[in-house]
Specification:
The complex is a heterodimer of chains A (279) and B (271).
Chain A (H helix, E strand, L loop, with lengths): L2 H31 L14 H40 L6 H10 L4 H12 L4 H6 L16 H36 L4 H30 L2 H6 L7 H9 L7 H32 L1
Chain B lengths: L8 H24 L2 H8 L1 E3 L9 E2 L2 H8 L2 H31 L6 H13 L2 H15 L3 H27 L3 H8 L4 H12 L1 H17 L2 H6 L7 H10 L4 H30 L1
Antiparallel strand pairs in B: 1-2
Helix pairs in contact in B: 2-13, 3-13, 4-7, 4-10, 4-12, 5-7, 6-7, 7-10, 8-9, 10-13, 12-13
The chains are: A mainly alpha (279), B mainly alpha (271).
């Protein structure tokens, strides 16, 4: 047996289930959304499900993109600060690195429960600040999705810190010291040494955060408001409906989210390629 | 030899040090603050607003959590995590080894397919496959395990690919020269050397099964009531904060313990 054949045999046990599950899921969702595999009635090619979902689909898309963008910007900003603090040459904070690492295995669902207990109008934060429940803005279930964005930003900032921190720890210190020896000031070192070194890792971590947030269900379902809904919440509600005729609409929402996630990854890859070429 | 100091530093160092401390404190608060009410509520029998600390401590939350089925939920989540880890770790290790040798035809495309579950939203995959699994008559727990194993494979593959890329094959060649069989070489040389990476991969795969909510909800069809399902149904209701807190903490502690254990395995292997 050649080494090539052996390599193929080694990769197949992982490749086959992944390709089968992902391929079957996508094909099945597309067919269902086009009316070709209905749960009740005759198969017939139609855009009825897409038409029926169209109005809410637009709102849900904008909402999902907005939540994902806000959470990503916050997570990237705070995560970068955490990474800098945890890897700084002078006065490095080991504690922050350890705290960020400990946040990683907390499931998002638990994060959502925790943020609910923190930010609700009788939650821990208003009590700590001495604000009466009536005067506290409705952060949970409110108009601006503050609790939802806060949960994603909280969890993902630790992830960003871990990814960026590992790059900075291994590469940045020696460059930073060289630049300092050559007389570069604090700001110049940050702007021309640390930031360009951190940028590719920051970009990758931000892209992962964005795509994850876009497709994640439980946080918005728990901390969001009933209407309007982001894409995952809309899809799961439609899929769980007693009315089997709306299942194709759920499939249309699932296909939309998958296409958006794929587009986001392709755009991110292109931007990252430019970033590393420029670096 | 010291670093050359910023000439302005002496004038500003005091203020800058203070600002740095404030910044570090703010970052620490950002990471820790959400977990504080979770810990306090878990041990609170009575904690009405506007009190900053519970008025009565106790184990009412624990009792409620056990009554809600926390014990069986815990067991189910553990088994689900272990099964996913047991499947995704060896498959990912084999794929990672093959990809690290650069002998897989269309290696880039193969890697892209193996990473695709990271890009596609889990709820979308679950919704798409749900109907198909029903039509094929696949039992729902098997469907859940299949989907979660596929969700875990990107992590195990990438981690093991990196580990095999850094792995020195010289040790294996030497063992073979000294008369070890291929099988002995794998089990007595290759796997012990890769133990830290395997432990890390298994941990990540366990985490995928342990903490999943949406796939279990959509594909499990309500039969597989894991710990996350209990957390979600308790958190969606109002007035049982202590129960939510206990359920939440019990789904955070095992991964934390495992994380420390994996770290220790890694440290021992390096030593």
């Amino acid at each position: 047996m050649s080494t090539r054949q052996r390599a193929v045999l080694l990769v197949l046990p992982a490749l086959v289930p992944v390709a089968a599950v992902v391929g079957a899921a996508l094909v099945s969702a597309v067919l269902l959304s086009l009316g070709l595999t209905p749960l009740v009635g005759q198969p017939e090619l139609s855009l009825d499900a897409w038409r029926a979902a169209a109005g809410d689909l637009g709102t849900a898309t904008r909402l999902s993109l907005g939540i994902a963008a806000a959470a990503t910007v916050l997570a990237a900003g705070v995560g970068l600060c955490l990474a800098l603090a945890a890897t700084a040459v002078v006065r490095r904070s080991r504690l922050l690195g350890a705290l960020a690492a400990l946040t990683i295995p907390v499931p998002h669902l638990v994060g959502a429960a925790a943020i609910g207990l923190l930010l609700a109008d009788s939650g821990f934060l208003p009590r700590l600040l001495g604000v009466a429940p009536g005067d506290w803005p409705s952060l949970v279930g409110g108009q601006w999705w503050v609790a939802v964005v806060a949960e994603y930003a909280w969890k993902e900032s630790a992830f960003v810190a871990l990814v960026v921190g590992s790059v900075l720890a291994s590469r940045a210190r020696s460059y930073d010291e060289t630049a300092a020896l050559l007389g570069a000031g604090r700001w110049a070192r940050f702007r021309y040494v640390t930031l360009p070194l951190a940028a590719p890792a920051l970009g990758v971590a931000s892209a992962v955060t964005f795509v994850y947030t876009l497709g994640s269900y439980e946080v918005a379902a728990l901390l969001g408001r009933p209407y309007p809904e982001p894409l995952p919440v809309m899809a799961v509600r439609l899929a769980g409906s007693i009315d089997l005729a709306v299942r194709p609409q759920a499939a249309a929402v699932a296909v939309t989210t998958a296409v958006l996630a794929l587009a986001a990854v392709l755009l991110a890859l292109r931007a990252l390629r430019r970033l590393s070429a420029w670096d | 030899m010291g670093l050359r100091k910023d000439p302005r530093a002496p004038h500003h160092s005091h203020a800058r040090g203070g600002a740095l401390h404030a910044g570090h404190a703010a970052l620490a608060a950002w990471l820790v603050l959400p977990l504080v009410p979770l810990v306090l509520w878990a041990a609170a029998d009575r904690w009405t607003a506007p009190a900053v600390l519970p008025q009565a401590w106790g184990t009412a939350g624990l009792r409620d959590a056990v009554d809600a089925g926390a014990g069986t939920g815990f067991l189910r989540s553990t088994v689900l995590g272990l099964v996913v880890a047991a499947l995704a770790t060896p498959l990912g290790a084999m794929a990672g080894r093959a990809l690290a040798t650069h002998r897989v035809p269309l290696g880039g495309a193969v890697l892209a397919v193996l990473l695709s579950p990271l890009v596609l939203p889990p709820f979308a995959v679950a919704l798409g496959l749900d109907v198909l699994l029903l039509r094929l008559g696949v039992p729902s727990p098997v469907g859940v395990v299949l989907l979660l194993t596929v969700a875990a494979l990107p992590y195990t593959t990438v981690l093991m690919r990196a580990a095999y890329a850094a792995h020195d094959r010289g040790f294996e060649d030497e063992a073979r020269t000294l008369g070890a069989t291929a099988r002995q070489t794998v089990f007595h040389v290759q796997l012990p050397l890769l133990a830290p990476a395997l432990a890390g991969a298994a941990f990540l795969a366990f985490l995928v099964g342990w903490s999943d909510y949406v796939v279990t909800l959509l594909v499990g069809g309500g039969q597989l009531v894991t710990l996350p399902l209990l957390v979600a149904s308790a958190a969606a209701a109002t007035g049982n904060e202590a129960q939510v807190a206990v359920l939440s903490l019990s789904s955070v502690l095992p991964p934390l313990v495992l994380l420390v254990a994996v770290g220790l395995v890694g440290r021992r292997a390096r030593a």
